[in-house]
UniProtKB/TrEMBL annotation:
InterPro entries: Flavoprotein-like_sf (IPR029039), FMN_Rdtase-like_dom (IPR005025), NAD(P)H-dep_FMN_reductase (IPR051814)
KW Flavoprotein (keyword) present: yes
Lineage start: Bacteria, Bacillati, Actinomycetota, Actinomycetes, Pseudonocardiales
Organism: Amycolatopsis tucumanensis
Transmembrane segments: none
Keywords in alphabetical order: Flavoprotein, FMN, Oxidoreductase
NADPH-dependent FMN reductase-like domain ranges (all copies): 22-164
The keyword Flavoprotein appears for this protein: yes
Name of the protein in question: FMN reductase
Amino acid sequence: MTSSATVVEAERGTSGTGAALRVVVVNGSPSRQSKTMGLVDVVLATLRTMLPVEASQVDVYRLGPGFTGAAERDEVTPEVEDVLRLVENADLLIAATPVYRGSYPGMFKHFFDLVDQYALANKLVLLAATGGGDHHALALEHALRPLFAFFQALTVPVAIFASAGDFDGVTLLNPGVHGRIEMALADVVDLLKARATGARTADA
């Protein structure tokens, strides 16, 4: 496990039974308190009402020179290597980022430049973004989804976007966004159930 500066200690959900779903949030915001993470907080709180969850958070802007100075995977420090493996071994990845000038920040992209090309194949990825206005929502489909298509990840069909007007500070208020979160997570639960059923059928 890496330092608390980069990965928040795992929190186990209380609903449901069985092994907890390993959820890793990759946070692309440079701010310590941000609307992006305000959105993610609601996503995680809602997910915990559906499934037992073990959640970790990677703040790409807090990974330090062992990350920013690495052009290739074999150049990262052991601490950053641990973070990359954490993401690669997640059951559900939440890719959360603010939108700047039509796309995600370069530091967010740099993180995924270091992720193994095949490590995210068929992995469930939930896309979440925030921006100053609704026009920034296009980045979900034109920037984020193609990025994870390269990795052959299974992106959840419903992506989540919230604009600045949906918040009071970093607290999400818009009930419409809350509804979209519930829709997206219903898809996550359905996909997980389908995988579990498929795995049991294959073992039979």
